[in-house]
Amino acid sequence: MPKNTTKKKTKKEEIQQEPEEVAPEQDGAPVEDPKSVEKTRKSRKRNREEQDKPREPLDIGYNSADSDDEEVLIRTGNIPDNWYDDYAEGDGLVGYDVKGEKVQKAPELQRDELDEFLRRQNDPNWWRELNDKLNNKNVKLSKEDVEMIERIRSGRFAFAEDDNDDLLYRPPENDDNPEFMHAMSDFNPKRRYVRSLHERKRVNRYLQAIRRGWLKVRTREEILQEYKKKNEQVWDIWKDESITAFRPRRLPKQIDAPKKDPPAHAESYNPPKEYLLDEKEKEEQDELEPEERLYNFEPQIFDSLRKVPLYNNLIKETFERCLDLYICPRVQRKKINIAASQLIPDMPNPSELKPFPSKVSIEYKGHDEAKVRSLTVSPCGKYLASGDDQGNVFLWDVKTGRIRHKYKFEGIVDCVRFNPNKSVLILSVVNHNHVYMIMPQKLYTRDERKDTENLIKEFKNNFIPSVDTSSTKKPPCKWEFLEQSDKDFVERDVRVKLEFEYIIKKIDWHSKGDYFATLADNIQTSTQVLIHSLSKAQTQKPFSKSKGIIETISFHPVRPLFFVCNDQQVFCYNLQKQVLIRKFHSGARMVSSIALHPKGDNFVIGSYDKKLMWFDLEMGNTPYKKMKYHSKAIRNVSFSGIYPLFASASDDGSLNVFHSQVYEDSAMNPLIVPVKILRGHGVRDKLGVLDCVFHPDQPWLFSAGADGRLLLWV
Amino acid sequence: MKTMRDIKIYERKHKRLISRGDKDQAEMLEARKPRMHFQHIIKERYPSFVDCLKDLDDALCLIFLYAKFPTHEFLGNERKTITACQKLAYEWMLYCSVAKMFKKSFLSIKGIYYQAEIMGANITWVIPYQFTQKMPFDIDYNVMNTFLEFYEQLLSFTLYKLYTDVGLAYPPKRMDLKSTDGSKVNLKTVKEMQAVALEKLYGKEAQDKKDISEEFMNTPEYTQMIQREEAQEKIRNLFKNNVFFLNREVPRYSLEFLIPAFGGDYGYEGEESLYTIDSKEITHHVMDRKINESKMQFDVKRDYVVPQWIYDTINNQIALPVSQYKPGAPPPAHLSPFVDNKMEGYLPKRQEEINDLKGITEEVYEPEIDDEGEGEEDKVEEDQQMNDEQGNKFDDESSEEDEDEEEAKRELEKKQRMKSKLKKSLEKERTELGKLLMTKKQRRLYRRINYSLKRKKEFVDKLKEKRRNLEQGE
Known about the structure:
heterodimer; A: 714 residues; alpha+beta; Methylamine Dehydrogenase, Chain H; five-stranded antiparallel β-sheet; 25% strand; disordered N terminus; B: 474 residues; alpha/beta; Rossmann fold; four-stranded parallel β-sheet; three-stranded antiparallel β-sheet; 58% helix; rRNA processing (chain B); BRCT domain-containing protein (chain B); nucleus (chain B)
């Protein structure tokens, strides 16, 4: 196998090597490879032998292919030498010659290292000898050869005679030499210096055109003018009114910019003297923000026009106007050009809605400086009871203003209420954690005394004095019937006493006068609200769970409904079924009071955040009307029993009386008209009017104030 | 968008040429500078010509201001734009003068205000006095330049329309550039132009064109219209037969346009002047200095006035007595003709005098007393609230005081009622009650109206008081 391959290779080599050897010799490039150096040297040698010494220069190109006939002995081709290493050791085979015969390694090449060393020691010219493996022999370099190698290495011509060869091309040394002419670039063709016929024709044509006026030659200035004119061209763009510019529909309507304010008198160079600012005003103006100033300039007087100086801010003002024009959003506002009085809504004349309380008739004097917390009118309309925060409870004669009874309690009397039953006369007084039922002895008529005593008798029958002590549950309140010997009985006419765990704030009677509800102050338990029956001497707990802090409570005047208000909501319970029926959202933050219309279809809520809400039971859970007119919290609201009136009492010391017509037809909205603002009470400790109540059968209003005044408005 | 790109390319090319030092080429390029075209925007924004006129105030103010700018390399004020503005400003003034459109003019400390009425649109603008403007550096001039770019084109198209409508050629000849004596216009040319323009505007053809139907002829509106036109005709010829001589130090740049617009003639110290200082035709001699100071011959036949007389006369449309406007003495107050004294609620003394001359009684609008009362009451309430907030200390006192006050009030009221003033108090109470029923929105509005009325009244009261003090001082 190796033989075959080598043969093939050698053949190939022959073909491949040939062009290599054609490579011209005169490159003059330094050749490092000793092989190629030898080759060149050899070829040169042969050349020299073949050719005569004076060489013909033109033959350089032709005769340089001298390697054509150069014989190489070993034709193994361009393969690494070590491939033949194995063969070389045995037979001394180093390759094959052109005829395919084996070539044995020449004996001079077979020298080993030791021989070589010895030879180097003996022979001073040992370095001249090189081995030519291709030709299987050693070559000795002659003196010329060494010289040539040196020349080639130093980049010169290989032969010394070639150095002054004039026939060789040299780049021109002197460009200025006129005799020297470059073969390509220095040769000017004819067209370079002969005028173009084509061009000439063209010029002639232009010439003709100019002469005959077909072509106009413009000067530079003319051209500039033309451009300028083109830029400044104007025409009537509004001529064709029919073409309106395209405007996308979605764009909002364009709003014209508001015009600048026209100049005022003060801007004159010579304004009336009153427009000048004095020192004080100037200081005031300087303190204000630039936007808030009266003028954006300083009014000045000049006695003649020529003395008016440059106004420095004009550019800035114009700039600000530009900014306004493109930055400020434009909004179209309806300009209100009406007098303020036109804003007040139409309403029926109050004088047509009489009667209503309008002025003070009687002042009940007795409370002095104490704040009158609560007041109530007896169902018969003859007596007025009031309680203040020093513990006084007065019973007044309504018409004369005389004090009929005076009771003294300890601490604040929070609430006084008459039993609404017309046949009896019982005053309930809330004091701290007690509720007292007072029967004012002097005031009774015969019937009343009888009925009242009947009621007490009934109570006495039902009353179980000793509560079952075995019960672990503490009852929310303790009933007590006072005998004639009791101190309270003697001093205060108290017949029944209820004792509670907590401080009681409010009491409200059912219209029939048997049931009443008590409200404890500011606790969050299920026993905050309790309902009691006087005749049965019983206490019920209507709610099993707390409803939040309850502010006020009220019985419905007709139906068995019970209203409970916490801060923001009003709950309406059916007492018979013991279920929650409705829930109203007041919209106020802090509800203070509730009053039900005597017909029972509407109610009014007053709140500490100055609002008054009118609810219609049939209209839904939100107020039918909200009003905010008091400047301070509303303390109390009250309906009149028979007249279409209601009033609100507020901490600003005023009472507002409204006419409120409720129609039988539920489709008609109630008519609410303010008819009177009653001002008479003062404000003390930020408290104004604390309670108000209407007379049961007159259009009279009683009011109690924190200033200790008790007024009757007629 | 394309123009924007073109401008960008132009700027690149221009910069290159300048850096090469190729000035000629750069100039050629500058001439070809791509420009934004705003015709479509103008048309879109102002579909009709009158819309455009109505919105011309800002454009005029800006252009007249730019016309007075100095060139400034750092701030980018080019000579070119300024001259363009000057040209437009000149053309506008010339038009107003030629077509006799001026209505009012006002000498303010900021500049001279003018108002012209063109096609029913009132156009007001201000021209700064003849000083070189000081350029503030804290302003973004690019914003103004952008506006100017638009306004320039807007005004040039508007002017074209205006000039062609009155039968004049646009652009008109620049008389101010050719004049040798610094005059802006040539009176003769202006008169010629006026003849053309007025013929077109108010001449026979224009009358025929109106094409009034016979039905309309008989209506009172028609007679009103005729009367109005006659009055306007009279105003246009306010200075007819008057010849003014404008001395030095008189704003000739303004009067040159104004006087012809009201039918007057004028002369000045210059080569092109039609009248010399000694001309016998001169009726008014306008000067700003004392007569003695200038070495002039005093002529009994003519009136010597300060320039303010002309402006006041124009604004009041009546020839005012000359005696108050003598040069050297401080003239009477110069009032703004743009103020509606009736609405302001204050009538300056000078206006009263003029009204006397005119024979008009002008009543001042005074807001209803009721409203003021309400306003005050509101204030009292507020004060009360304030007091309450301040603390408890004063509460007792104040409440007591209030009580006393209120009691006194009540008693007074009772008396009033006794004296049959029931009606008024009832009315007041009614409004007070009505206020309870107002919705929140209405209530706010009500308060705002009252507040603005109150402020106005305070201002007027202050003015009145000052005036009283001044008069007493005199």
